[in-house]
Structure formats: C-alpha cells, structure tokens
Amino acid sequence: MKLNVLGWGLLAVAVLTGALTAENWPAWRGPRGNGAAPGKLPPLDLAEKLLWKAELPGRGCSTPIVWENRVYVTSPVGDQDGILGFDSAGKELWRKTFGPLTPGRGQRVGSSANSSPVTNGEIVVGYFKSGTVACVDLEGNPLWQINLQKRYGKDGLWWDQGTSPVFAAGRVVIAVMQTDGESYLVSLDPKTGKEVWKTPRKYQTGEESGDAYSTPSVVKADGLEMIVNWGADHLTAHDAANGKLLWECGGFNPKRAGKQRVIASAVVEDKLAVVPFNRGDSLAVIRLDGRGDVSESHWVWRDDEVGSDAVSPVFSDGKVYVLKDGGPKRGRLTCLDAKSGKHLWETKLPKAAQVYYASPIVVGDRFFCVREDGMVISGQIKDVGLADVKTHPLEEGVIASPVCVDGRLYVRSEKHLFCFGEE
Description:
Low-confidence stretches: 1-22
Mean pLDDT: 93
Helix content: under 10%
Number of domains: 1
Distance between the termini: 49 Å
Shape: globular
Oligomer: single chain
CATH superfamily: Quinoprotein alcohol dehydrogenase-like superfamily
Structural class: mainly beta
Strand content: 35-45%
CATH topology: Methanol Dehydrogenase, Chain A
Radius of gyration: 20 Å
CATH architecture: 8 Propeller
C-alpha cells in the first residue's frame, strides 16, 4: 500500500553543518547527517587499494569519525571504555580510558562501544553502554566525564545502546529512549559536561516498542535550530536551545503493537524526514514544519513495500536509497523520489546468508555498503540502477558503517580499522 498526501508548506530547512566541510566526517552519518558525502570520490574497486589497517584493542561496533586527517574511534580497552586517535597513516597517536565497561548483551551484533563519537573540531565526545559520556580534546587530553545512568537512572533497553551523541545549539545532546525507565533528551555543556537542559520524552507503547537505538538529526527551520528524533512510535522535534517540544507526529503504530523497537534512524533533508518503521517493512516521509500534534497533517507518503530495520537510509539530492537489510529480500537496494515516493529503480546486490547492520553511504555517484561478514559492496549510481557492482572481502565481521573523507574509505571491523584509497 502506498499513500500520497498532497500539499506542501514552504519552509527553509537545511541540515546544520556549521564549519563542517567535505574533508570531515564529524558524526555517525557524516557532515550532513544523511549518509551522503561530497568531495573526492573513493575508488570503486577496492582491490589493491588498501592504504593501511590498524589493529584495535577490542571488539566494538561504533563507526569512526574523521576530522582534519585524524581518525577517532571508541573501543573497549581491556575492561575499560576507551577512545583512540589515529593519524592519516594509521598510526595510533593516543588512547584514553574512562572506567569499567559494560559488556554488550548481543555478542554477535552488540558491544560496550556501539555509539559513534562526535566532534565539533575542538573536542571529541564518546558515549558508552556503561552510561559514561567522556570528552577529550583532539590530542586526547581528558576534559570531563559523567555517567547518565548514575545521574538519571539505569539502562532499561532490551539490547545494547545504539544512539550516538550529536551537537545542537553548540552543545552535546544525547537521546535516551526506553520502554522501561526514564526517557529523555539531555543537553550538556561541551566545556564541563554539566546539564544545560533535560526534556522528558516518554510515550505509552507496547512491550519493547519504546526502546530506540536511533540517533537524532539537527536541522534549522526559519532560523530555529531543532532536534528531530525518532523512537517510541513518534517522530518529534525539540528546540535545540531549551529542549521544548515543537511538534510530534504519531500514526506509525496506532494499535500500540509490541516489539516495535526502533534501530534505523530517520534521515532529514529538503524539508522532509524519511522514517523507516514497522521493523523494516515500511517507510514514510514526514514534513518538518508545523507546531503541536501533526499526526494527521504532515504525512507526505507511506510505502509498505520497502523499508529497513537496522540500516538507516541515505537521503541525498532529492533521492532516498533504502537497503533491505534482512529477510528473504535482503540485499535489495531501492531508490525513491523523496517528494513523491515513486520507485525510480531497484538493484539486487550479491546475495549471501549474512545480513546488513552497517548503514550505506553515497559519495557523489558512488554507493558503498558492508555486509555483516565484512563484504564491501560498491557500485556506480545510474538513472536505471546500480552499475559496475564490485565486491571486496575484509574477511572480518563488520557492524559499523563505512565512512568516506577526501577520497578515502574507512571501515571498522571486529579487529581492525581499514583505510582504502589512492596513493
């Protein structure tokens, strides 16, 4: 079933990038938060293109970030939560630890370090399953650390923490969304870690359906910076300055069915939010304007024939790229027109028994994704589908998403950090 809702409100919305450039990947989903990167293209065929690989001290699932030729990644270090810094040649520059880690519950897909770090070019902030939020400068000097679970209550998630911190209104913002326990958005002073504001975000849901592992997006609408957040059967927008709820959109799970936890994040661009829901079976687009309850007015379209469960879509240049991550149709890549929901093309990627947990990226006209078994799949985006599809085995399991900066492709596996590119 597909529902098209006509009518638009004119709204100037742009993903906040600040001083971010094509040469940086400062957060989990890249410089615009949508899984797409401008700039120099990485090689499509990765054979003989490995520049370096660096051994990591423990198994983590977080995606690395890149700033000014430095790579930062969270990882277990022995029995401690840790952040590591590498230079552009793969040399480890420093590693810092922040106290005892909490082991991942999902041993195949989870870890103590699932959340990706974030940087604003001055500091790096990591968030861990233990509840620890740790901040260092770019040279690894510790600045502050706090523990959200000690401040606000224990972790009630069924599985391992997944949401990554973001910067909003110049502060560090973290979303905690869980069925059992307190759910909230909290804004922290980047210099001290002290609370600036904390806003409850609690909805009545079915069993487990309040659990969310998604990461917020930060956008600007008519001069107002807002945090768009997906989880607990609702898409919401909060004022980044004070946490005030601006609008909320329901209708994703009207019967409050259980087990509708959220893993894949919504992605935002062009006045729209693309929302994967229904455990990978549905996709919707929601307008970003309005105030109050917009559940009846702001659905643009809904498609129950395409979706992703753990893998977040890419939203770039008016097109949405959705990778089916599991089930019989795993490996199906669908490109849709964002405004109409029209299916533009579909490509079936090389199939295997393994599924996808890493979210794909688009760099110019090139598409990259990584399967659970460490198979990197790439292709050139054409009007009729993905062409010149290449595969490259890492021969190590991969949960983290790939990253591209300045023509270099970075992939974090269970044991190593890989870097591919031209010499």
